[in-house]
Amino acid sequence: MADPPRIGLTGGIASGKSTVADMFADLGAVVIDTDVIAREVVMPGEPALDEIVAAFGNDIVDDAGMLKRGDLREIVFSNEAARKRLEAIIHPRIRSAAIQRAEAANGPYQLIVVPLLFESPLKEAVDRVLVVDCTEETQIRRLMARDAASETEARQMLAAQASRAERLSIADDVISNDKSVANTRQQVIALHEIYLSLA
Predict the structure, then answer these.
(1) Are 132 and 14 in contact (CB under 8 A)?
(2) Which tens digits make up the pLDDT trace of 138-197?
(3) Which of 169, 165, 174, 185 is nearest to 20 (CA)?
(4) pLDDT, tens only, 31-77
(5) How do strand 173-176 and strand 128-133 relate by DSSP bridges?
(6) The whole model's pTM is what?
(7) Closest Cα partner for 168 from 134, 122, 194, 198?
(8) Nearest CA to 12 among 158, 124, 171?
(9) What does the angle CA 165 – CA 171 – CA 175 come to, to the nearest 5 degrees?
């Protein structure tokens, strides 16, 4: 039997990827979220955490040995070399775990949620790319509300990722997430039918 089609779901920060992924899950799609995997691979006792401490210092973990994700985010968002160093540690592990989970799961099709798909080697492991898209103004507004970020901080977060144009350049499918939840759900249902037909 052929493997289930793998759809790489991506989008900029605060574009609504999780909302869209949850809608697909409600329709019965298998969803593999690399953000969840990213948290797992840096838990205490995991080799990636040891490498991160070696690269960024002991202050990057708290007294319980847990990674201070906020502190690390501040370092890598303002320093491209540091970000590339971190990605070299965690990206191969995330890719390996995501593919293992995809191979173990079944379903008519699989949605692999990869926020940084444009920059990720996982791009080669998916059959189609679905981009959740919205304007940069919408992203900034949501980031300021969600993370209590300043506009400057929000713009730095956007600048650290692939641009909207770069993401759209690799898209096979696009969901516009600037309007109502109902409008987004309609687009998800339509794509769900297309993905079922590919199975």
Answers:
(1) no
(2) 999 999 998 888 898 888 888 888 889 999 999 999 999 999 999 999 999 999 999 999
(3) 185
(4) 999 999 999 999 999 999 999 999 999 999 999 999 998 899 888 87
(5) parallel
(6) 0.86
(7) 134
(8) 158
(9) 90
For residue 111, which amino acid is it?
L
> Distance (Å, rounded) from C-alpha 177 to C-alpha 162?
18
Lookup: tokens for 80? 């491209």
CA angle 129, 133, 136 (to 5 degrees): 140
Measured distance CA(84)–CA(82) in Å, rounded: 5
Asked whether the beta carbons of 170 and 129 are under 8 A apart, the reply is yes
CA distances to 18, 97, 101 from 36, in Å: 11, 11, 12
Domains of the chain: 6-198 (3.40.50.300)
In the three-class reduction of DSSP (H, G, I as helix; E, B as strand; rest coil), residue 95 is classed as helix
Beta bridge partners of 32: 112
**CA-closest candidate to residue 184, choices 31, 13, 16, 7:** 16
User: In residues, how long is the chain?
Assistant: 199
